[in-house]
Amino acid sequence: MKTTINFLLICLALICNSSMAQYAPAPAQNKSILIMNVVAHLGNGQVLENAAVGFKQGKIELVADARTIRLAPNAYDEVIQASGQHLYPGFIAPAINLGLIEMEAVRATSDFYEVGDYNPHIRSLIAFNTDSEILPTVRSNGVLITQVTPKGGTISGTSSIVHLDAWNWEDAVVRTNDGIHVNWPYPYRRSSGGLEINKDYSEEMERLGLYFEASRAYCSMPQQSEVDPRMEAMCPVIAGDATWYVHAEDERQITEAVNFKQKHKIPEMVIVGGYDAAWVAPLLKENNIPVMIPRVHSLPRFSGDEIDAPFTLAKRLHDAGVVFCFQNAGDMEAMNSRNLPFLAGTAVGYGLPYEAAVQALTLDAAKILKIDAHYGSIELGKSATFFISEGDALDMKTNHLVRAFIDGRDITIRNKQVDLYEKYQRKYGQIK
């Protein structure tokens, strides 16, 4: 009885704490806005040094050089003078459990892992928590869109893409059920003596192949007498309407995943991780397979690797012509997703061109997720989803958001950490 009461008290505290930190989503855009004299990083590799960007009803209607345009008086309801500031498309954080976990130490706040090995029918979207305290913190560094991704098992489930300012998951949806995530069997296992061969690898690979073929046979039937939700979930991947996301790091894993794609005629595939992707870059480029590269701020996997291998992977793939984006899966990935732009900044420090890094965070990520028709770059007709920073958004010292918009809605960039900082600054008399 005492344990039950304690558990209820903890849940009540979590609910109260969450409600205190939640900020109301912004209303739909009801006035036209013009941003003037801003340094606009368009997301497609181009920069406008003195840009004018106008948007109405959530859509971009003007992208031009501010020094050459002529506008009628009162053409826009609000004009933002942003001289010396920087405008970026909203950054996209793929392949993480943001919104599915609140506190790693409290199991009841985690909803990203399902029991079982093959769960393609598990949809992460319906578990996305728009009231999470983490979302405003991530937003305040320019990450405005994420791919809500399940974890665990061989086939983890189905991801969806959402923006980070909504009352509920229905309002947050950008793309529903964009793909299925598979954790590729690992040919080796760690042991006390280092690595040893995984004796079950061939069996695991055979099982995965048989499962895929059974799903293809099921999906090819004109009408099923009995619906199998697991195999039903595989049909969009087989038809090319959803992506086969393969979580793999090792060179052999990546190569065999590509062979699996060819053998089973999978239309769309993405490598998630790909620590060894640069070693098989020609294979990836030939088969038009993009990579969501692993967390840049990591140690090398093996003692024989170059010490800066994680830092230089982005440049090596860029030089090889392989499309890639950044992702931050790993320990505390939900909270750490706020550091996504700084991973790109580190890659810039190790040779990746700056605008290529911005593009990997925005347009290339949008292309990989198949949302680039509306998001990922500052172009005419696209969603007004971008933010203004006082400085370089890839530099943790100078990135400071002053305004942010999702679909033209002027969202708050405050978060619980800022509120507490200001509260205790006032308490100790440092802010009058």
Write up what this structure looks like:
With 432 residues, the chain is α/β, with parallel strands linked by helices. It has a domain at 91-375: TIM Barrel (Alpha-Beta Barrel), CATH 3.20.20. 31% of the residues lie in helices and 24% in strands. It contains 13 helices and 18 strands. Strands 1, 2, 3, 4, 5, 16, 17 and 18 form an eight-stranded mixed beta sheet that branches. An eight-stranded mixed beta sheet has the order 6-7-8-9-12-13-14-15. Strands 10-11 form a two-stranded antiparallel sheet. Strand 1 and strand 2 (47-56) form a beta hairpin. Helix 4 crosses helix 5 (229-239), helix 8 packs across helix 10 (340-349) and helix 10 packs antiparallel against helix 11. The longest helix has 20 residues, at 2-21. The radius of gyration is 23 Å and the shape is globular. The termini are far apart. The model is unreliable at 13-21 (pLDDT under 50).
Mean pLDDT: 89
Query: Under the CATH scheme, which class of the domain at 91-375?
Result: Alpha Beta
Helix content: 25-40%
Please name the CATH architecture of the domain at 91-375. Alpha-Beta Barrel
Going by CATH, what is the homologous superfamily of the domain at 91-375? Metal-dependent hydrolases
Beta percentage is 15-25%
Residue stretches low in confidence (pLDDT < 50, at least 5 long) are: 13-21
What is the CATH T-level topology of the domain at 91-375? TIM Barrel
| Rg estimate, integer Å | 23 Å
**Distinct helical segment count:** 13
Largest sheet: 8 strands, mixed
What is the number of E strands?
A: 18
Give the termini distance in whole angstroms. Answer: 49 Å
Based on Cα principal axes, name the global outline.
globular
- Structural class call reads alpha/beta
